[in-house]
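Task card 7
Instruction: Convert sequence to structure tokens.
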Amino acid sequence: MARGLGIDGLLRQLDQASQSGRSLDGLYVISGDEPLLVTEALDGLRSLAAKAGYLERTSLVMDARSDWSAVMGATQNVSLFGDRRLIELKIPGGKPGKAGGDTLVNLAGLAGGAGLPDTVMLISLPRLDRATRSSKWAAALQQASAFVEVPTIERQNLPDWIRQRLARQGQSLQPESLEWMADKVEGNLLAAHQEIQKLGLLHPEGPISPKEVEQAVLDVARYDVFGLRDAMLSGQANRALRILAGLKAEGEGLPLVLWAVGDEIRLLARLAAAQAAGQDIGGAMRQQRVFGPREQLLRQTLRRLPAGLWPVAVQHAHDVDRLIKGLKAPGRLDDPWEELARLVLRVAATRAARAG
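Output:
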């Protein structure tokens, strides 16, 4: 089994197998949170499986409440025409439950022991968090399958991703235009893909001028509360204010936006207090169920900002909540959106040298 492959490497490997007439592995797992990239990976696998003669296809969508006996039944059904089979198993929530977990362990054992003759199992999952990754069923799948983690395209990598996609259709943009386009499609990879395709239809191969790009690309950025939270914590003040303005323009509910901002501020206040009391910050984060990339972001934020800022910011969030409810908050602006912007700036723009 090939494990830990990128999707391009896996598709190349499968293409070579199909051209040589070799059978494919029994189990492939695609895990990721970017719908566009996951869909492209699944489409590529389906196409190459068909080329290799896996013509009969069964698709199942399962969760913790599903009847998982149907999955084992699908692997045991005999094709009427003797075709090789592709069985797709989608677990959108990433939580199969007890029966599902047991079934996945069983499938991994069958695949690892060549117990799925003339059958390819293709399982798609969201990106697995640390707790799920250590579960018995996830460990079994990783051990027995060609396991592909589809990457999440972060904002700093988006211009290069756009550049590579444009290069596939023989086009190029100046670095400034790549950054501008990334701003316009931020948080929406499908929209970026559509705009790249649009440029391919509107313009011939070769360089595209900044003016041509601006005329073609729409402002399709998916402003969201989590993007606002991350921009605020990473000290990107201008970006945070741009996202906040986008949320307001799109009619997003102010209580939801305040929840995302205020909840993170309260969490950081607890972590800062634990750190000031001499507690192990790693242990404190485990207690607050903070893991992975978010843990790194919060650590950076705690280093960037003075401990004295957090009680003040918590009170500021309470004041914004009062304004939303139509109550007065002494020393605050009457417009809760404007006051929320001041709170976001308090966290995004403050540096350790000043307590804000």
